[in-house]
Each structure stands twice: as structure tokens, then as C-alpha cells.
Hints:
This protein has helices at residues 4-23, 30-40, 42-65, 85-93, 100-109, 118-127, 143-152, 172-181; strands at 71-75, 82-83, 113-114, 131-139, 161-165, 194-200, 226-228. By secondary structure, it is an alpha/beta fold. α7 (143-152) links the parallel β4 (131-139) and β5 (161-165).
Amino acid sequence: MSSQPLVRRAVLILALAAAPLAAQPPTPAPQELGIKYMRDSEEYAALARQVYRMAGDAVTRTAATAGRQRWAVVLDIDETALDNSTYQLERAAYHVPFDAQSWDAWVSRREAGAVPGVADFIALVRRAGGHVAWITNRDAAAAEATRANLQSVKMWADDDRLCAQTSPEHSKAMRRAEVVSGKGDCSWSGVAMRIAVFVGDQMGDFPDATEHIPGTGTDDAFGRTCFLLPDSMYGGWIARVTRVR
Length: 245
Ligand SMILES: [Mg+2]
């Protein structure tokens, strides 16, 4: 009995000590911070719109000089056009990593939103008379759900090419070559295309020097023909330990 006031005092001291902590929101784990940045920050949304505005200016310049030459823009899909942060958040909430099965289930839900700025950019491309090729490493089985998701955010047109990955060897470089040459599934049959801009969130979304696509393959291309969006949720950078300048 005599220990009760002591216990009460101890509880009070603990409660007071905890009070300042309770007033602070919990700090997310690093991976969750990367998701939060893309979902919640004004900075990410402004950056994405900025990138798309600059890409739109490049498209306008191409359209002004294209004459009768046909031209296209090439976009990646995930974290370039479609925002999959809800999937990433769900995985993080349960402390489970990305896996193919859960990803396929997410894709079939068709619930991805649009990355800020992309819808206006695509509308500008269409008004200016350009074609749109979506080059994605989503697999061919996901094509229908992907098309439907793009449609739901008003970014799909029947003239578009959805160039999914049909096998591990089916690289994005191969599909870019098809767009340029006019030969293959990822082309407007027989029509060689000038590519006005490439947009992506990973370096693999852009041609390297060996592809010999005009205006690409150097660092100088970024901001001119190649437009890179930030991706703090995933990418090759997570495993890298060497800073590249
Ligand atoms: Mg991507």
C-alpha cells in the first residue's frame, strides 16, 4: 500500500519525460522517407512539373522545325507517367519488399495516378502533332491493364505504341531502335521517327552513345532531349556505393 504514491510519482515522471517525444511525429525509416518525398512533398511535385514544362518546350521547338518529318516522344511508364507510390507505401507498411506477384496484383488494380505534369505534356505533344511511344519494362502480360490505367488518367490514345518487355533480352535500347527505324512492334510500321524527347526516371530510360540516336548519349543531352525525373523510392542508385559525377 505504501508503495502506491511512489508508483504514481514514477508514472508521472515517465509521462512527463515522454511528452516532448509524443508531440513529435515519428521519423520515417529511410525507405519510407523516399516514398513520403514523392507522395507528400511540394518539392517533388514542382520538380516533376518543371521537368515536364522543359520537355514541353523542347517538343515545341521540334514541332516548329519538323516540317513534314514525323516525330515522336518516348516515355517510360513507372514513376515517369504513372505514380506507383501507393504500392510502395503498402509494401512498406507491412515491412515487405517488392516482389513480382504483389507487383502484378498492383498493376491489375489499375489504380496508379499520374505523375505531376505528365498529362499536360502529353496533351501538348498531341496538339503539336507528335506520336507517343511508351517504353516500359512491364511485361507483355500487363499490357492490357497498363493501357487501361493510362486511359483512366487520360493519357492513352489509340495511335500510341505500348512497348512492353517481351523477354529479359528485349532491352529498351532495342525498342528505341524500332521507334527510330520504323521496323518492329514498337514502331509506326514503315515510318522512321525523329525522337523529340525522352522522359524517364532511371538512366536506362535514355539512349547511350552506342545507340547513335541524334542529340542523345552524352550528359549534355539532359535538359535538351533527355528529361530525368527524380525517383527516391527505388532504382539502381540504392545499391550503388560509388558517387558518380
Ligand atoms: Mg520508371
